[in-house]
Amino acid sequence: MRRLRMLAVLALVGWLGACAQAPIAFESDIERTWSMALVALPAGRGPAIVGRMGDRVVAQRIAELRQRPRVPLVVFLHGCTGIGDVPFFEALARQGYAVVVPDSFARRFRPLQCDPRTLRGGNNVFVYDFRATELTYALEQIGKTDWVDFSNLFLIGASEGAVAAALFRGEVFNARVLLQWTCHGQALVRGISAPPNEPVLAILRAGDPYYDPRNTPAQHGDCGAFMVGRPGSQSFVLPASNGLEGHTLLDDPSVPLTIREFLATNVRRARREF
Description:
The chain is an alpha/beta fold. It has 7 helices and 8 strands; from the N terminus they run H-H-E-E-H-E-H-E-H-E-H-E-E-E-H.
């Protein structure tokens, strides 16, 4: 019996020693939103590509970009159900922009803020703290790159992501775009917190079911009410869709075109430190 106990102790010591020699890799939830981010990159010696941050093809394209002039970057904050709109990201990459989409749902715990079945939002307002943290962390990682043009950073948010984009107070972006958000609602989410000299483009569709007064009476209206004193800013309300879903905007060909024109208008030639 004593011999068996001794063997068990020796085995445990050996196992612990092996663990000490080979530490287990661990990523926090916030790190996962970056390592699992969707990335669209402009052409190096080939076509634009779309992949995850950790993909080999993404690493290869970044290596190519390091040999070229730095590229403008769009940070895109997705909506309440996760990443979509991949054709839009690819189109931006073909225009010469890099696009990074932090994946909020890469977190191990990530409740839905909206209910796609009932087309109602606002279920977990604290999620906006998640999104602000994800954006701040993404900017920290972007600041470590050697291929991004820090004088040409842009922020685009859609729906839940547009709320986070509207509320972000940092002075690091040339301009920002708010899609599918009214800028109205509870005091916690109301208004635009971008610096007054930073142009903002807001686009909403009339009759958006998420902002139907019968569902969310405090959120009807549009961002135009908050554009006063913001040079170069615009708020568009598109006509109601004809029987379509009514919330998603990037499927409308006019919207990506308007966004690309807005970004091009706000591209700077001079670079600044991040």
